[in-house]
Amino acid sequence: MVENRHISITVNGERKEADVEPRMLLVHFLREIAGSTGTHVGCDTTNCGACTVLLDGRAVKSCTILAVQADRRKITTIEGLSKEPGKMHPVQKSFVDNHGLQCGYCTSGMIISAYWLLKHKKNVSEQEIREAISGNLCRCTGYDNIIMSIKDAEKRMEEEGDTLEEEQAVTVRK
Amino acid sequence: MDLSEKFVKGNGTFVDDIHMPGMLYLGFVRSPYPRAKIKKISGGITHKDVNFDIAAVGEGSEEEQTFSSTAHPVLAKDFVGYVGQPVAAVYSTDPYEAEDLIDSVEVDYEPLPGISDPEKAIDFEPINPASKSNVIVDRYFGKEFPDNVGDVVIEGRFVNNRIATNPIEPRGIVTAYDGDKLTIWIGTQSIYSIKSGICEAMHLPAEKVRVIQTDTGGAFGLKGGLFPEYVVAAWLAMKEKRPVKWIETRREHLMASRPGRGAIAKLKLYADRSGKIKGLKGEVLVDNGAFTGGSGEFSPAFIAMQLAGAYHLENAYVRARSVLTNKAPQGPYRGAGRPEAMFFIEKMMDHLADKLKMDPVDLRLKNAAEERYRSPLGFEVEPSKKFLEAAIKETGYRELSKKYNTGFSFLILYHATSGGESARIQVKDGRLKVWIGGNAHGQRHDVFSKTLINEELGVDESLVDFQLGDTDQIPAGIGAWGSRSAMVAGSAVLMAARMLREKVEKKYGKYSLNHLLGEEWDAYHNFEYSKMESSLGVNVVTADVDDLGKVKIRDCISYYDAGRVLDPANAAGQIAGGSVQGISQALYEELAFDEDGQPLTSSISDAGVATADLLPKFTIKYYKSESTLPSKAKGIGEAPTIGVPIALSRALEKAMGREFNETPIRPELLLRETAVQ
Ligand code: FES
Ligand code: FES
After folding, report:
1. Same domain as A128, residue A70
2. Measured between alpha carbons, how far is residue B581 from residues B334, B340, B585 in Å?
3. Tens digit of pLDDT for each residue in A4-18?
4. Which residues of A touch B216 (CB under 8 A)?
């Protein structure tokens, strides 16, 4: 048996420490240890994007990263997207207002991917949005309202002065 | 909190989000063979421990006799019939360890030749030792008629291949037992199906089982029935007196949940030279899979009975069969027999029009039913001509078809309204709690419930708390499927609200909001309804195919009779979502198998679930009408998965100049010869 490793990951600004099996996936660390159950699992082949979170600011599928690879890094999940607790980030708000969800299962991952896009690109076209979320599957909405939500979110972020971020190089420790 | 707000904040409680101290995690040892004898099983929980069969519950189950000899065992006994069939179960307090334990169980198999092609399975040796033939349903509908009823005949073989339901949330269950009562938390379309299924399979009295619905991440037919894994989870919780969790992996979903479609038709359509159809003859074959308990027992009849479409049909004679194959049992998928039936009749209408050199829409106009009548195949067809005339105008078909490759489909949607539905409204501390019998999984039944309550009682929507299903709170109900909820659940809510109004009136002489909110009240209404309703719809799709075989869809127009549209935003969401499922059925979706039944599809992307980068915009229009039900609504949830594949496939026939009689349309068929050279 491979020995457990002690890791510490900052999840939504809070340090979470645990002894974990080296094979534990980041998504399971987030859900079972950090209690961030808003991050979902929808597949076992890195296709669906339901597990998307920000790792050091960058959108990643947390089912394809080991928890130990995220040791001493920062994770933002859907629960930590809004800077003010209890309030919604403009992307979250625009998904509510534009009916960008039905069952709500793909939603967290979809919002994180949308947030990442809007933080890194100005004046996004519809095609760019469609491509940016092509790694996130939604079986309910037909994507139309999701696209509308993201377009609307861009406007709202601009209005709120939520600005672009420099792309950060993320190298996942192997 | 508003439901949408809860989900965008990541605060939903899906079944996998439930954690309890001492929880055990279940894992399943599954058959690697499509067909094999089991000689020995060493380790794990086996059929010797959990010796039950799966009871058929849910959508359509009330309509047919039971098939006990081909019933699905919870855990395999002396043979397996499909890859993925549960053979044994293991558990641990750690989910990773539970997965490791799967490998510790040794099963000694003697592989046998399997069969995956339903047409070949008819004459293949019986794959279930208990049955003499693989054909488990063989029925005739209508009456034989002479071949000379028409001047022209068209004939074809039409196929809708199997597809996985693939909600993004897989199946899952949590069970707990306190020594007296079993409690189940589950993402489901029907807590009542789960409860009655568990009670029947495990011989438990109804009062000893409680089923609570968790937030449900899509279902599309999948989550209406009982599955073997649920029974094992219930059994283990009762045995160990500890909470138990099982969550399906996507791979398990693709192998061993119940996929939909899987139907073949060989049909002839007779007409006179003017285009008047004179008769329909042929057969329908459903790929049942290895065991009963899914929907393969009743879907042949359900498909056959709808084959008149929305047309007037004098003569019809159809044989409908279901055949055992070495695959997981077939189940309902959004439409569940309706898309298959309309695909078959509408394809023939298009090809008949081609043969007669008519516009397909003129052929449809000529045959639309002018009066309500009972088709020789069994179902009542409502008058459809007026609607069709309006649809041609409102969709702009005539102009579009001059410019683009245009497909047109005309559908009748039979709603699963029979059985009615229940609702309960409780008033306490100035707020209302509402439960309805069928369990939503993305359709937002809370919204129409609040609208109807507001209209009936004047209660502000912010004072209404819509509840997830709980058999201890609302004792009886049916389920959310078959485009029924706005109709029967909506009516049940409205009637329960009326009961509250009457209670207040009885006590105070007249109704007032203050009296209602100032006291405690409770009203439960079981809205009884025995009729199957129907409504009409049209889809128009324009599309082109580039030299690389890539499909570009320009328009996807829906024109539906939705009765009173109770909730326009969510109705539009249902139509857009269903349209994408229709597009992906036509172009991408298929669960493929080799000849023996070994699955070839191993990821959700391989299974063809559409992504966001290749889809058109949708136009949605409604025909103005009202249903005769108290809610005045007509269901539309399944209309797009019926109409869109037909219209898209026709648009592509125009683009490619050839017939497409199968879904999905394989990519190699979309390459023009010039491009291949
Ligand atoms: S769960 Fe991570 S991509 Fe599907
Ligand atoms: S809202 Fe259900 S999967 Fe996207």
Report:
1. no
2. 9, 14, 6
3. 999 999 999 999 999
4. 103
User: Of A21, A42, A133, which is closest to B612 when you measure between CB atoms?
Assistant: A133
How far, in whole angstroms, is CA B12 from its chain's centroid?
Answer: 24
Q: What is the ipTM of this complex?
A: 0.95
CB contact under 8 A, B168 and A47: no
Q: What tokens appear for B233 in the block? A: 């989870």
Rounded Cα distance, B492 and B494, in Å: 5
DSSP B140: E
- % of chain B with per-residue pLDDT over 90: 94
pLDDT tens-place string over residues B613-657:
877 879 999 998 999 999 999 999 999 999 999 999 999 999 999
For residue B252, the CA-to-ligand 2 centroid distance in Å is 20
What is the DSSP secondary structure assignment for residue B630, as one 8-state letter? T
Ligand with the closest atom to the CA of A43: 1
DSSP state of B295: S
Beta carbons of B232 and B124 less than 8 angstroms apart: no
The number of distinct structural domains making up chain A is 2
pLDDT at B178: 97
Residue after which a domain boundary falls, among A80, A105, A138: A80
Mean pLDDT of B38-45: 97
Please give the single-letter amino acid code of residue B244.
Answer: V
Q: Tell me the pLDDT tens digit for each residue of B494-511.
A: 999 999 999 999 999 999
Show the tokens assigned to B248: 């399906």
* Within-domain flag for A85: no
The mean per-residue pLDDT over the stretch B595-609 comes to 96
- Looking at residue B74, its pLDDT comes to 96
Q: What residues 569-588 of chain B have any CB closer than 8 A to a CB of chain A? A: 569-570, 572-574, 576-581
Give me the domains of chain B, ranges plus CATH numbers: 3-112+176-247 (3.90.1170.50), 263-415+532-676 (3.30.365.10), 421-527 (3.30.365.10)
Query: Kindly report the CA angle at B157 between B537 and B291, in degrees rounded to 5?
Result: 85
Q: Answer yes or no: is A173 within a domain.
A: no
List chain B residues with CB under 8 Å of A104: 3-4, 6-8, 12, 215, 217, 442
A76/A18 same-domain check: yes
User: Of A80, A109, A140, at which residue does a domain stop?
Assistant: A80
Asked whether the beta carbons of B310 and B345 are under 8 A apart, the reply is no
Q: How confident is the model at residue A1 (pLDDT cuts 50, 70, 90)?
A: low
Cα–Cα distance measured from residue A104 to residue B16, given in angstroms and rounded to the nearest whole number: 14
Whether residue A76 is found in the same domain as residue A117: no
Q: Are B298 and B64 in contact (CB under 8 A)?
A: yes
Q: Please indicate, yes or no, whether residues A112 and A75 belong to a single structural domain of this protein.
A: no
Angle at B228 between CA B66 and CA B165, to 5 degrees: 90
| Strand duo B182-186 + B209-213: pairing | parallel
Domain holding A146, by residue range, is 90-167
For B358-414, write each residue's pLDDT tens digit.
Answer: 999 999 999 999 999 999 999 999 999 999 999 999 999 999 999 999 999 999 999
* CATH at A154: 1.10.150.120
Residue A25 lies in a domain: yes
Q: What is the mean pLDDT of residues A74-100?
A: 95
Q: Is the peptide bond before B645 cis (omega within 30 degrees of 0)?
A: no
Q: What is the pLDDT of residue B531?
A: 94
Dihedral in degrees, nearest 10, Cα atoms A41, A43, A44, A50: -50
